[in-house]
Amino acid sequence: MSPVLVVVLLVVVVIVGTLMSVKVVPAATCFVVERRGRFRTMLRPGLNVIVPLLDRVVARFDMREQVMSMREPLVCRDNFVCEAALEVYFELEDPSIAYRVDMPQQQLERAVREDLREFAGIVDRDEFLTSAQRLRDVAYDATRRSREEWGIRVTRVAVTDLQHR
After folding, report:
1. Is a pLDDT exceeding 80 seen at residue 96?
2. What is the DSSP code (8-state) at residue 54?
3. Closest Cα to residue 48, out of 36, 64, 32?
4. How would residue 131 be classed by pLDDT, with cut points 50, 70 and 90?
C-alpha cells in the first residue's frame, strides 16, 4: 500500500471515531448510556463524550413538564355512571427510571385510574359531581408511588370536567 493511502485511511478512521464519540444532548433532554449492557452514566444537555463501540445511548428522556389527559367513566355507589376528565402534569426527575419501570406514563395513568374507581365506588352521584377538590386529592395521592419509587414528580392535577352520563 502506498503511504498516501495509509494516511488517508488513518485520517478517515480518526474522523469517524471522533464523530462517534461526541454526543450533543439538546436542552431539557437527558440520555441514558450503557456500557456492555450495564448503566454507565446520564448525559446532560450540552456536548458530551462517550467511548465509541463500548458505550451506547439506550434511552432519551424529555425533562420538561408533560401533561397526561384522561377521561374516565366511573360507577358511583348508587350505580350511576359519572365521567371525570383530568389532566396530570408531571416531570421526570430521575432518568434512570428506564431501569425501574416500564412505560412510566402508562403506569402513572393506571395508578390514577385505580384510585379514581375506588373513590367513585364509595360516594353517590351527587357527592361525586360536587367534589372536584376531593377528586383532585385522590388523584394526587395515587401518584405517591411514582414520586417515591419511579422518580416522576407530579406537579399538579386538574379536574377539567365532571359530568353525569
Report:
1. no
2. T
3. 32
4. confident
Amino acid making up residue 36: R
**Residue 148, φ and ψ in degrees, nearest 5:** -80, -40
Cα–Cα distance for residue pair 24/117, rounded to 1 Å: 44
- Going along the chain, which residue ranges are E strands? 22-25, 29-35, 38-43, 46-49, 55-62, 66-75, 81-92, 152-164
Element (DSSP H or E) covering residue 84: strand 81-92
- pLDDT at residue 46, rounded to an integer: 94
Q: What are phi and psi of 143, to 5 degrees?
A: -90, 5
Q: pTM for this structure? A: 0.76
C-alpha–C-alpha distance, residues 79 and 28, integer Å: 46
CA dihedral defined by 79, 81, 87, 90, rounded to 10 degrees?
Answer: 40
**35: its cell numbers:** 456500557
Instruction: Enter the C-alpha cell of residue 7.
Output: 494516511
